[in-house]
Amino acid sequence: MPRRKGAPEVNAGSMADIAFLLLIFFLVTTTIETDAGLDRMLPPFEPPNEEPPVIKQKNIFTVNINRNGQLLVEENLMDIKDLREAATKFLENGADGTCDYCKGRKDPASSDNPAKAIISLKNDRETKYSTYITVQNELVGAYNDLRNREAQRLYGKNFTTMEADYLNPETPSSVRDDLKDKVKRIQDMFPQKLSEAETTTD
User: Fold this and answer.
1) Are 159 and 149 in contact (CB under 8 A)?
2) 137 occurs within a structural domain
3) Is residue 25 part of a domain?
4) φ, ψ for residue 110, nearest 5 deg
5) Which of 18, 85, 159, 187 could form a disulfide with 151 if both were Cys (CB 3.0 to 4.6 A apart)?
6) N-to-C CA span, the chain
7) What Gene Ontology cellular-component terms does the record carry (predicted)?
8) Is the pLDDT of residue 117 over 80?
9) Which structural domain range is residue 143 located in?
Protein backbone atom coordinates (compact mmCIF):
# COMPACT_ATOMS: atom_id res chain seq x y z
CA MET A 1 0.00 0.00 0.00
CA PRO A 2 1.58 3.29 -1.05
CA ARG A 3 2.35 5.89 1.63
CA ARG A 4 0.20 9.02 1.63
CA LYS A 5 2.01 12.20 0.90
CA GLY A 6 1.78 15.02 3.43
CA ALA A 7 0.32 18.45 2.65
CA PRO A 8 2.60 20.43 0.35
CA GLU A 9 4.73 23.00 2.13
CA VAL A 10 4.21 26.69 1.36
CA ASN A 11 7.40 28.55 0.61
CA ALA A 12 7.22 31.60 2.89
CA GLY A 13 10.75 32.75 2.28
CA SER A 14 9.70 35.76 0.20
CA MET A 15 6.93 36.95 2.57
CA ALA A 16 9.37 39.08 4.56
CA ASP A 17 10.50 40.82 1.39
CA ILE A 18 6.91 41.52 0.37
CA ALA A 19 6.06 42.91 3.81
CA PHE A 20 9.15 45.10 3.73
CA LEU A 21 8.23 46.48 0.29
CA LEU A 22 4.68 47.23 1.45
CA LEU A 23 6.03 49.04 4.51
CA ILE A 24 8.27 51.23 2.35
CA PHE A 25 5.36 51.91 -0.02
CA PHE A 26 3.11 53.17 2.78
CA LEU A 27 5.89 55.25 4.36
CA VAL A 28 6.60 56.97 1.05
CA THR A 29 3.00 57.59 -0.01
CA THR A 30 1.42 58.52 3.34
CA THR A 31 1.05 62.23 4.13
CA ILE A 32 0.97 63.39 7.73
CA GLU A 33 -1.09 66.48 8.42
CA THR A 34 0.47 69.08 10.69
CA ASP A 35 -1.60 70.96 13.24
CA ALA A 36 -1.97 74.71 12.90
CA GLY A 37 -0.35 76.66 15.68
CA LEU A 38 1.39 79.83 16.69
CA ASP A 39 5.01 80.57 16.03
CA ARG A 40 6.27 82.04 19.27
CA MET A 41 9.74 82.32 20.75
CA LEU A 42 9.83 82.76 24.52
CA PRO A 43 12.32 85.28 25.89
CA PRO A 44 15.15 83.91 28.07
CA PHE A 45 14.34 83.81 31.76
CA GLU A 46 15.92 86.59 33.73
CA PRO A 47 15.29 86.90 37.46
CA PRO A 48 13.71 90.25 38.25
CA ASN A 49 16.21 92.68 39.72
CA GLU A 50 13.76 95.46 40.31
CA GLU A 51 10.05 96.08 40.65
CA PRO A 52 8.11 96.12 37.37
CA PRO A 53 7.11 99.59 36.18
CA VAL A 54 3.61 100.86 36.83
CA ILE A 55 1.49 100.59 33.68
CA LYS A 56 -1.36 103.00 33.13
CA GLN A 57 -4.68 101.32 32.41
CA LYS A 58 -5.17 103.44 29.28
CA ASN A 59 -2.04 101.82 27.80
CA ILE A 60 -3.63 98.34 28.03
CA PHE A 61 -5.99 97.16 25.28
CA THR A 62 -8.01 94.31 26.81
CA VAL A 63 -9.46 91.54 24.64
CA ASN A 64 -11.55 88.81 26.29
CA ILE A 65 -12.92 85.71 24.51
CA ASN A 66 -15.75 83.84 26.23
CA ARG A 67 -16.68 80.17 25.83
CA ASN A 68 -19.10 81.06 23.01
CA GLY A 69 -16.39 82.75 20.94
CA GLN A 70 -17.71 86.26 21.60
CA LEU A 71 -15.23 89.13 21.95
CA LEU A 72 -15.34 91.68 24.72
CA VAL A 73 -12.93 94.44 23.69
CA GLU A 74 -12.42 97.23 26.19
CA GLU A 75 -15.59 95.96 27.91
CA ASN A 76 -17.63 96.26 24.69
CA LEU A 77 -18.88 93.47 22.42
CA MET A 78 -17.09 93.45 19.07
CA ASP A 79 -17.05 91.31 15.92
CA ILE A 80 -13.74 89.63 15.08
CA LYS A 81 -13.74 91.41 11.69
CA ASP A 82 -13.48 94.77 13.50
CA LEU A 83 -10.73 93.71 15.92
CA ARG A 84 -7.71 94.49 13.73
CA GLU A 85 -8.85 98.04 13.02
CA ALA A 86 -9.55 98.70 16.71
CA ALA A 87 -6.14 97.34 17.73
CA THR A 88 -4.41 99.44 15.05
CA LYS A 89 -6.09 102.62 16.27
CA PHE A 90 -5.01 101.82 19.84
CA LEU A 91 -1.38 101.07 18.91
CA GLU A 92 -0.82 104.30 16.99
CA ASN A 93 -3.00 106.60 19.09
CA GLY A 94 0.01 108.67 20.23
CA ALA A 95 -1.68 110.56 23.03
CA ASP A 96 1.55 112.00 24.48
CA GLY A 97 2.72 113.42 21.14
CA THR A 98 6.13 111.69 21.18
CA CYS A 99 5.34 109.51 18.15
CA ASP A 100 5.86 111.64 15.03
CA TYR A 101 5.06 108.77 12.65
CA CYS A 102 1.78 107.77 14.31
CA LYS A 103 -1.44 108.72 12.52
CA GLY A 104 -3.76 108.20 15.48
CA ARG A 105 -6.37 110.47 16.99
CA LYS A 106 -4.22 111.39 20.00
CA ASP A 107 -7.14 110.50 22.28
CA PRO A 108 -5.99 111.26 25.86
CA ALA A 109 -8.03 108.29 27.10
CA SER A 110 -6.08 105.83 24.91
CA SER A 111 -2.45 104.73 24.59
CA ASP A 112 0.38 107.25 24.98
CA ASN A 113 2.69 105.80 22.29
CA PRO A 114 3.49 102.45 20.62
CA ALA A 115 6.32 101.69 23.07
CA LYS A 116 3.89 101.79 26.00
CA ALA A 117 0.89 100.20 24.27
CA ILE A 118 0.14 96.65 25.46
CA ILE A 119 -2.53 94.29 24.13
CA SER A 120 -3.85 91.91 26.79
CA LEU A 121 -5.60 88.77 25.56
CA LYS A 122 -7.65 86.58 27.86
CA ASN A 123 -9.78 83.55 26.98
CA ASP A 124 -12.05 81.00 28.62
CA ARG A 125 -10.92 77.38 29.02
CA GLU A 126 -13.79 76.31 26.75
CA THR A 127 -12.94 78.76 23.98
CA LYS A 128 -12.57 77.01 20.62
CA TYR A 129 -8.98 76.78 19.47
CA SER A 130 -9.92 78.02 15.99
CA THR A 131 -11.43 81.18 17.51
CA TYR A 132 -8.36 81.71 19.65
CA ILE A 133 -6.06 81.38 16.60
CA THR A 134 -8.23 83.78 14.58
CA VAL A 135 -8.11 86.42 17.32
CA GLN A 136 -4.33 86.00 17.65
CA ASN A 137 -3.92 86.42 13.89
CA GLU A 138 -5.97 89.61 13.89
CA LEU A 139 -3.95 91.12 16.73
CA VAL A 140 -0.60 90.19 15.17
CA GLY A 141 -1.97 91.45 11.86
CA ALA A 142 -2.50 94.89 13.40
CA TYR A 143 1.22 95.04 14.28
CA ASN A 144 2.20 93.78 10.83
CA ASP A 145 0.00 96.34 9.05
CA LEU A 146 1.64 99.21 10.92
CA ARG A 147 5.13 97.80 10.43
CA ASN A 148 4.50 97.23 6.73
CA ARG A 149 3.30 100.82 6.35
CA GLU A 150 6.42 102.25 7.94
CA ALA A 151 8.73 99.87 6.07
CA GLN A 152 7.15 100.97 2.80
CA ARG A 153 7.57 104.61 3.75
CA LEU A 154 11.20 104.26 4.83
CA TYR A 155 12.55 101.50 2.58
CA GLY A 156 9.95 100.86 -0.11
CA LYS A 157 9.48 97.24 1.03
CA ASN A 158 7.04 95.29 3.18
CA PHE A 159 8.31 94.52 6.67
CA THR A 160 7.08 90.92 6.51
CA THR A 161 9.19 90.34 3.39
CA MET A 162 12.24 92.00 4.94
CA GLU A 163 11.90 89.98 8.15
CA ALA A 164 11.45 86.71 6.23
CA ASP A 165 14.60 87.41 4.20
CA TYR A 166 16.53 88.34 7.34
CA LEU A 167 15.51 85.14 9.16
CA ASN A 168 16.14 82.93 6.14
CA PRO A 169 19.49 81.14 6.63
CA GLU A 170 19.91 80.91 2.86
CA THR A 171 19.98 84.70 2.50
CA PRO A 172 23.54 85.93 1.78
CA SER A 173 25.26 87.36 4.85
CA SER A 174 25.79 90.74 3.17
CA VAL A 175 22.03 91.07 2.59
CA ARG A 176 21.22 89.93 6.12
CA ASP A 177 23.66 92.47 7.57
CA ASP A 178 21.94 95.22 5.59
CA LEU A 179 18.49 94.06 6.75
CA LYS A 180 19.40 93.68 10.41
CA ASP A 181 19.28 97.37 11.34
CA LYS A 182 16.26 98.03 9.15
CA VAL A 183 14.23 95.20 10.68
CA LYS A 184 15.19 96.26 14.21
CA ARG A 185 14.26 99.88 13.50
CA ILE A 186 10.77 98.91 12.33
CA GLN A 187 10.33 96.54 15.28
CA ASP A 188 11.30 99.32 17.68
CA MET A 189 8.79 101.68 16.09
CA PHE A 190 5.94 99.26 16.83
CA PRO A 191 7.18 96.74 19.41
CA GLN A 192 4.92 93.71 19.65
CA LYS A 193 3.69 93.67 23.24
CA LEU A 194 1.01 91.01 23.21
CA SER A 195 0.31 89.73 26.72
CA GLU A 196 -1.78 86.63 27.41
CA ALA A 197 -3.58 86.77 30.74
CA GLU A 198 -4.41 83.68 32.78
CA THR A 199 -7.24 81.59 31.34
CA THR A 200 -10.57 81.84 33.11
CA THR A 201 -13.10 79.10 33.86
CA ASP A 202 -16.22 81.24 33.83
Assistant:
1) no
2) yes
3) no
4) -115, -165
5) 159
6) 89
7) plasma membrane
8) yes
9) 59-196
* Residue 72 lies inside a defined structural domain of this protein: yes
Q: Above 80 in pLDDT, residue 13?
A: no
The pLDDT of residue 20 is above 90: no
Strand order, beta sheet including 118-123:
76-78, 71-73, 60-65, 118-123, 194-196
Strands 194-196 and 118-123: parallel
Q: How confident is the model at residue 38 (pLDDT cuts 50, 70, 90)?
A: low
Residues with Cβ < 8 Å from 49, sequence gap 6 or more?
Answer: none
Q: Which of 179, 155, 156 has the alpha carbon at shortest distance from 167?
A: 179
Q: Alpha-carbon Rg of the chain, whole angstroms?
A: 28
How many domains is the chain built from? Answer: 1
Separation between Cα atoms, residue 21 and residue 11, nearest integer Å: 18
pTM of the complete model: 0.74
Q: Which of 113, 157, 161, 121 is nearest to 137 (CA)?
A: 121
Q: What is the per-residue pLDDT for 48?
A: 61
Greatest mean pLDDT among 22-26, 129-133, 187-191 lies in 187-191
Q: Are 117 and 91 contacting, i.e. CB atoms less than 8 angstroms apart?
A: yes
What is the rounded CA–CA span in Å between residue 194 and residue 197? Answer: 10
Q: Is residue 202 part of a domain?
A: no
Q: What is the DSSP string of 35-78?
A: PP-----PPPP----SPPPP--GGGEEEEEE-TTS-EEETTEEE
| Residue 37 pLDDT > 90 | no
